[in-house]
Structure to design on (116 residues):
């Protein structure tokens, strides 16, 4: 699982402004939906780390300031950031929406690396 937790607001700001494509999973430990999609997120992170995409997780119950800044309204929420700007997002448990998010905003991915 090549993804890391974001520890605080400063960490979040540094990560999204790193110049790399960053995908963040906003999740809650108590959410069954988040638990059911964590395997999919793990599979994607295993694949995309090879093309230079960084994966992180934010526990919405621990980092309220980051959740407010990112305007997260439901869990799970997945966001793609490039150069400090949110360029895409997907919400809910539909694996296809996460698959489409990656295909739309991650350069170098054809959608064939992992099953939809």
């Amino acid at each position: 699982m090549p993804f890391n937790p974001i520890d605080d607001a400063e960490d979040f700001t540094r990560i999204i402004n790193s110049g790399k494509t960053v995908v963040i999973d906003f999740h809650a430990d108590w959410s069954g939906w988040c638990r059911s999609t964590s395997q999919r997120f793990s599979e994607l992170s295993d694949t995309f780390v090879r093309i230079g995409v960084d994966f992180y997780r934010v526990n919405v119950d621990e980092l309220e300031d980051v959740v407010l800044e990112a305007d997260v309204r439901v869990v799970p929420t997945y966001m793609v950031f490039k150069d400090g700007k949110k360029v895409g997002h997907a919400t809910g448990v539909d694996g296809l929406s996460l698959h489409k998010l990656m295909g739309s905003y991650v350069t170098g991915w054809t959608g064939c690396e992992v099953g939809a």
